[in-house]
């Protein structure tokens, strides 16, 4: 029987890699694990308790909030407030960032940006959903309230990022900039256990993920790439398979393990993009790159984008290196033709 490595064991072991480590990031990662278990409990019995359906309010994105969006948001905020490592948060479900000013948190070293419940359109139909998180060291002085600048940092400056996938099993996948590791929740012992050590994304794959319902509103370069994916060419394993769950975390996770590309481009109906840079695209871009993949907004590396707004959106191309590069070359090719 192989040794079980729990998330706590693993994080403590890895903490030794950092001479200056204070244990605060270790505590923060275990706070995230606790909140994930609480949300997992609610997700698993969603149909039995009154947490399906809409809450009856609209968030700053103009989306109808689902009850589980708010339940997850509150569970994670409670966990971030509890430890003292976090001085402020920003989330998809809150109009503005929240600075924690209690004496326990105001000296906190980190800020966290998160999408408490990703894949909201799939909550009521029992399809995989998730949570996405992004962690930065604060810029502002400890002992003072967190400020907007603490949250508008480039993705490349993340100290850690990851996601939780509530699927047939519940997994937590994260990176602190030293590779990507995946943990599966063992409900019988209530622990996240190392199940996917040192995840490496294949340089290429046979899966492309895009909402083809938007194709006629996309850039010609995107159409060209989708056409490329569908062409018959045994040598390159084409046609590829189209797979689209409609939960970013689930689509991203599948492609991370199997090889594939996820694309949500800017479109006529989403001219700035659909997905949110700070708590959807940046954390997953961090994971993609740490696993050997790539992530762009169609023009530049996602992690190099300098944010200007908390809820800004961007185009998103992420996954296997060769496939993202190919999609970029189609965009450039079409752009060159047009100009
Ligand atoms: O229905 P569409 O336009 O394809 O959008 C699906 C995308 O929207 C999202 O649901 C947006 O995230 P939220 O559910 O957190 O709002 C992604 O998970 C998913 O990839
Ligand atoms: Mg989301
Ligand atoms: Mg969400």
Automatic annotation (TrEMBL):
Substrate binds at residues 118-121, 211, 244. Mg(2+) 1 binds at residues 92, 115, 117. Its EC number is 3.1.3.11. Residues 202-331 form the Fructose-1-6-bisphosphatase class 1 C-terminal domain. Pathway: Carbohydrate biosynthesis; Calvin cycle. GO terms for molecular function: fructose 1,6-bisphosphate 1-phosphatase activity; magnesium ion binding. It holds the Pfam family FBPase. CDD domains: FBPase. Its cofactor is Mg(2+). It catalyses: beta-D-fructose 1,6-bisphosphate + H2O = beta-D-fructose 6-phosphate + phosphate. Residues 6-197 form the Fructose-1-6-bisphosphatase class I N-terminal domain. One of its GO terms (cellular component) is cytosol. It comes from the Bacteria. Binds 2 magnesium ions per subunit. Belongs to the FBPase class 1 family. Homotetramer. This is Fructose-1,6-bisphosphatase class 1.
């Amino acid at each position: 029987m192989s040794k079980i490595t729990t998330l706590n064991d693993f994080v403590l072991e890895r903490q030794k890699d950092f001479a200056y480590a204070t244990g605060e990031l270790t505590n923060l990662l275990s706070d995230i694990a606790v909140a994930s278990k609480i949300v997992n409990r609610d997700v698993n019995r969603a149909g039995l308790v009154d947490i399906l359906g809409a809450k009856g309010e609209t968030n700053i994105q103009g989306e109808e909030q689902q009850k589980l969006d708010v339940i997850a948001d509150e569970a994670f905020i409670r966990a971030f407030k509890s430890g003292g490592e976090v001085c402020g948060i920003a989330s998809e479900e809150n109009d503005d960032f929240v600075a924690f000013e209690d004496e326990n948190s105001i000296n906190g070293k980190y800020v966290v940006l998160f999408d408490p419940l990703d894949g909201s359109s799939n909550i009521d139909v029992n399809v995989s959903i998730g949570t996405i998180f992004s962690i930065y060291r604060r810029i502002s002085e400890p002992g003072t309230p967190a400020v907007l600048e603490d949250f508008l940092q480039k993705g490349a400056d993340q100290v850690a990022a990851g996601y939780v996938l509530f699927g047939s099993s519940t997994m937590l996948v994260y990176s602190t900039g030293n590779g990507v590791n995946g943990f599966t929740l063992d409900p019988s012992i209530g622990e996240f256990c190392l199940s996917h050590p040192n995840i490496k994304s294949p340089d290429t794959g046979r899966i492309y993920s895009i909402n083809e319902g938007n194709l006629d509103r996309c850039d010609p370069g995107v159409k060209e790439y989708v056409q490329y994916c569908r062409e018959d060419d045994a040598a390159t394993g084409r046609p590829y398979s189209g797979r689209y769950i409609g939960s970013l975390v689930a689509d991203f996770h599948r492609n991370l393990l199997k090889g594939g590309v996820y694309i949500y481009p800017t479109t006529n109906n989403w001219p700035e993009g659909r997905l949110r840079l700070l708590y959807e695209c940046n954390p997953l871009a961090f994971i993609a790159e740490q696993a050997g993949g790539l992530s762009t907004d169609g023009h530049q590396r996602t992690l190099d984008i300098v944010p200007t707004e908390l809820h800004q959106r961007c185009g998103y191309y992420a996954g296997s290196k060769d496939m993202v590069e190919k999609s970029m070359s189609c965009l450039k090719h079409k752009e060159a033709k047009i100009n």
